[in-house]
Design a protein that fits this description.
This protein is mainly alpha-helical. The protein is built from 5 helices and 2 strands.
C-alpha cells in the first residue's frame, strides 16, 4: 500500500482526500476530507518522530539512536515542528545553564534516571 501524498507534485498545495473505502465490505464514502497535521510529514520526518517517541521525547537519546549529534537532532525536531505548521523560536538557545537546571540534571543522574552520557549531553547542549 502506498503512503498518502500530502502535497501536490505540481503546485505544492495541500492535497485533499476525496474517497474512503472499507477493505472489508467495500463500502465507499465520497467527500472532501482534510489530512491531519501528521500527514504533512515526509518519511524521514515520521521516522525521526518514531525514534523520538520510542525514547520518550528525549532528544539526546534519539540522537544517540540515530548516531547524530544532539544539535542535528534538535534541528530535525525544529524541521518537524515547522512542517506541522507551528512556529519555531529561531533564537539560539542560551549557552548558559541555570544553577537550578544543573541541579535537576545532576539529581536525575544521581537517582539513575539518566546516564552519565545523557547528563553530559544535557549540560553541553545548553
Amino acid at each position: 500500500m502506498h503512503s498518502i501524498v500530502s502535497a501536490c507534485p505540481v503546485c505544492q498545495e495541500e492535497m485533499r482526500v476525496t474517497q474512503l473505502r472499507c477493505p472489508n465490505c467495500s463500502s465507499e464514502l465520497h467527500g472532501n476530507f482534510e489530512l491531519n497535521r501528521l500527514n504533512r510529514l515526509d518519511g524521514k520526518q515520521i521516522r525521526f518522530i518514531e525514534i523520538l517517541l520510542k525514547n520518550r521525547a528525549n532528544v539526546y537519546r534519539a540522537a544517540e539512536d540515530l548516531s547524530i549529534s544532539y544539535s542535528t537532532a534538535r534541528n530535525k525536531l525544529d524541521e518537524v515542528v515547522r512542517a506541522l505548521g507551528y512556529p519555531v523560536d529561531e533564537q539560539m538557545p542560551s549557552t548558559e545553564i541555570s544553577p537550578e537546571q544543573r541541579q535537576m540534571i545532576l539529581k536525575s543522574l544521581s537517582e539513575g534516571q539518566i546516564s552519565a552520557e545523557e547528563a553530559i549531553g544535557l549540560l553541553d547542549a545548553r
